[in-house]
Each structure stands twice: as C-alpha cells, then as structure tokens.
Amino acid sequence: MKQLxxxxxxxxxxxxxxxxxxxxxxxxxxxxxxKLASNExxxxxxxxxxxxxxxxxxxxxxxxxxDSYYLKEKIASYLNVKSENLILGxxxxxxxxxxxxxxxxxxxxxxxxxxxxxxxxxxxIETSGKESFVQVDMTNDYCYDLNGFRxxxxxxxxxxxxxxxxxxxxxMLPKAELLKFIEEVPEDKLVVLDNAYQEYVMDPGNYxxxxxxxxxxxxxxxxxxFSKIYALAGLRVGYAVANEDVIFYLGxxxxxxxxxxxxxxxxxxxxxxxxxxxxxxxxxxxxRDVLFGKLERMGMNPLASxxxxxxxxxxxxxxxxxxxxxxxxxxxxxxxxFGFDNxxxxxxxxxxxNEYFLNKLGKVLAx
Length: 367
Ligand SMILES: Cc1ncc(COP(=O)(O)O)c(C=O)c1O
Known about the structure:
By secondary structure, the chain is of the alpha/beta class. The chain has two domains: 2-44 and 274-366, Aspartate Aminotransferase, domain 1 (Alpha-Beta Complex), CATH 3.90.1150.10; 47-270, Type I PLP-dependent aspartate aminotransferase-like (Major domain) (Aspartate Aminotransferase, domain 2). The protein has 13 helices and twelve strands. Strand 5, helix 7 and strand 6 (190-194) form a beta-alpha-beta unit. It binds pyridoxal-5'-phosphate. The site of pyridoxal-5'-phosphate has 13 residues, from helix 4.
C-alpha cells in the first residue's frame, strides 16, 4: 500500500484532536465526563444564534451560498474592511491548508516556532514534504523567538506562521516587537498571523490584530475563527483577512459550498452578540486566574496565559497521568505531539468543571 501513497504522507502523523466526551463515556463506562481539552468556549451559544440556526432548518435541502455572501458582508462591516479582503473556510485549520496549497511552491519552506499549533506542520508536510517545514526553538520563557526567526529566514522561506497568543503555551508577542518583525520581512514572504485567541487577550492595547496590515500589504494574512469566543466550534467557520490579490488566489483552492447553511446563519447572528462575547471573555479571565492560582499552589508550574487554556508541568509521566485522568472522567491534553514531553494543557472551563478537574488531578497525583 505504501508505494501507492503520496510520499509526503509517509512522514506525517494525522492531527490528534482532544477525545470526544462520548468516546470516554463509552470506553470507561462513565456517566460524568468533563472535557477541557480543545479550547472551546464552555458557554453554549446565545438564543439569538440558536434562533437563526432553527430558522435555517427548512432550507437544508439546498446547498449553501458557495461564496458566503452575507456572512462576508457582515464580517466586512464588523472589521471595517471590504468583502474582497475576506475568504472563509470550515475552521481556520482549513484556511491554513488553503494558504499553503495556494502559495508554497516546490523547494520553498514554511517557517514557524516549535511548540505551536500543529496544523502549520501538517499543511506544510502534506503539500511539500518534511524538508519544507522549518521550526525555530522557543525562548526560555516559552515565547516565539522572533530573533530566531530572523536568523532562520532564507531565500527558500515562503510562509511564516505566527500563532498569537500561541497554542499551547498561551504566550503573546508584544505589539511593537511583532510589528517591527513584520516590517522587516521581505515582501516575497507571507506572514500569517493566526489570531484564534485574540479576544481573550488581557491587554488589547499591547496586541497587534494586524487587520490594517493585512489589507494594506500584499504579504500579511490574518486568521480568525468562530470556534473559540463565538462558541461555534461545532459548526466550523474560520476566515482569512488579506489583500484582494491574496484572497483572489486563495479563492482558487477553496472548495465549493465550504461553509454550511447553518454555519453561515449562526456566524452572522453571533457577530451581533457582543454581550455574549464580553461575558465569555470576562468569565474566562476570572476562571483562568482562579485555575492558575490553584495549579500554582499544587506545584504544577503553570504558564501565565493570554488565552482560554493553561499549560502546566505536572512533574510526573504525562502518559500515565493522562490515562488516569481519562479513567476519572476528565479529558485534558497531553502535549507530546506539540513537542513537550512533560506538559499538559487544560482549557479554562466553567467553575464547576475546573474544580472537578482540580479535584481529580489532586487525587491522581496523590496516588
Ligand atoms: C492557534 C490556533 N489556530 C487555529 C485553530 C483552529 O481553529 P478552527 O479550525 O476551529 O477555526 C486553533 C484551534 O485550536 C488554534 O489553536
């Protein structure tokens, strides 16, 4: 079989998402399972969004609008850009693949940090093989090392991915530092700012959202998603903001009808739910602080996070710990696939779920 397969895939492990609740309930015969593994918003969608979804049910026998016209109009007015600056995908993960497929030529490379979101690696290797993927070590305090990027950049570098805040560390690059870096990158290299967790950032004044750069420059792309603060992970919508020319070429690799009818309607409605967004960010900040403090007191060395998750170092074998936590009905994320052999990541949930996680963690570690 192996000889039938695209050789780029020989070196590729598929993306392993956090396990679904149903699987753990079935496998361990558990009634209660708490999932804090995939950085979802723990609050269900607001009524206005469920009403929009319900309203669309009668039209599901028709394909959706392939161009997501009304959703793009809505995002455009929300960001103060033109529809021509936008392209949508079923999750920003898919937009990452579209960017690599559209722009990475044979022999060129993707540059990013180690210990970052896995889709950059997957998209790069799938398209152009393992030589196409270059990673720079993080700084000692688990930040993207932009000086390391400067040194690693060469003639072959084509696409630079920057997750800000980064998953799984929750660390953020300060605005001035990132801006300076982008301004130094030659125009024949694309800089992709992946802002999946932007709405959770504590100090927006020190955050580069990049929208103005994406519109005015030919080599900056900003990625956003409805999966996190908008609580629509189950419907899959993400998008890129970029110069019209970049969007034109991304349009060539977009699949037809790629955003479902329900997803389009829900995303449009969710952009009118400012209260929900603000409430989600505020509760995340509060619960994140509590969770961080308790993890710190347990000696877990958590990293300060600007997102809706916390990385911690349990000081024990994470494979064994993870298995025991699953048996106890708690799904969190062991971080070996991200390049940490000693760290776990927990999503900030509602207070009750965070407490459940902390209790089970205490119990398992005491064994
Ligand atoms: C940094 C980062 N970018 C993008 C995504 C992808 O989100 P989605 O495909 O749901 O839009 C994630 C998801 O966890 C992420 O952590």
